[in-house]
# Entry
Amino acid sequence: MDLASLAALIVLTISYAKGIKAIFVIAVASLAFGSLAALPPAFTGGITITASSLGFLLLVVKVIKVARLNQILHVAFSFKELGFLTFYVLWSLVATLVFPWLFDGTMYVYPVRSAGIDYVLVPLSFTTSNLTQEFYLILSYSVALVVSLLSSDADFQSLFRSAILSVAIAMILTGAIDYLGAGWILEFTRNASYALAGETNIGSSRRVVGAMPEASSFGWLMTALLSILILLRKTLGLDSKVLICIILAIIFVILCASSTAYGMFVALIFAFLFQTLLRAVFDGQIEREKSILEIICLSLLCVLLFEIVLYVDAIRAPLFQLVDELVLNKSASSSFEERTRWSRIAYEAFISSYGLGIGVGSARTSNGLINILASTGVIGSVLFLLYILRLFYYAPANHRMYDRFALSLSMLSPFIGLALSSATADFGIILAILFGLQSPKSLIFTGDPSYE
# Structure
């Protein structure tokens, strides 16, 4: 066992022993180390179990051990809580265990895991990817369940703030180390089977990867965190720590040079503007004045950034090159063609399965929503859609308009990222946490966060 895995196991073990709060913060913070395997692939038959996956598994075990059974069942099966999501996951399990066998060899797909550098069409069959990807989906669901249970605690608001700031700071620090050319410091954390999976340069511009496997995954997580920091700024408390994290996160979203991150960032801007409009129209004079002040500050920041881009050659030339590669020439790239082909073949497999689906982990896509459709079929997709609609219908009660839709709006950017780049049907840990916070009993907006 290498030093990185040993260190991860020691930290996770100590955190588990200290209690729910400690393991929650450590598990969330470990998301910043996406290439760190807590158990080396050599010990697990080539399957990567990351530090974050093991951390959240320990969190789930810790919470389930102390929660009451009737409380767990209520959260899991009430349609005002996770009911539709529970049935979506249960159906995905049925689809994964049955349909790869039922349609074995009758259609071709691009596999989730490739034996070589390139992905090639293979006959549909049941593989270890079906088990591992279903496990990740169940883990994400379980995180949503335990966060829903925890969110009714009076001190969860402060715990949530600590966890989000921890992972944001970890992302910023690892991004800064990588950007400053000291990426070798992070090499010991790259012991997963996929390690550094993507190109780190576009022309003369270096893409920031941090401790993640590729620039797109770094950009996805950084932008998702930025969405939470901005749209849940009232819950987190807009103090100096949060403000500095927001500013630095914006910088690293730009530096990661990921088209997925840029798409998510545009969605975040629209969500912020809509939230500000709700706040100004529905939440009284004081909130209206705060909204106007935020818009003025944002406008001044945009003008400042525009001036910097316009007059600083060292920034303008690389930025224009990135726009040219990631936006103007994106559709003509071989990468874009390949990723589009993955989704098209998966959709054709869905059609060939008579709408039943082919099981989670059977096919790779570049669009998570298409993967949900292809993996779980019409039934699974409808259940997932009903759950998303429920998030808006059963928003946390007894809060002002600004609060009621803050969580829903904070999900927009991660959902765009899911649609633009996800290779599987797993909605991921970040969305799982936000799903859990949507519990009608959530106290996430109660009181003021603790600043320590």
Remarks:
- The chain is about 65% helix and 5% strand.
- The first strand starts at residue 37 and ends at 39.
- The mean pLDDT is 83.
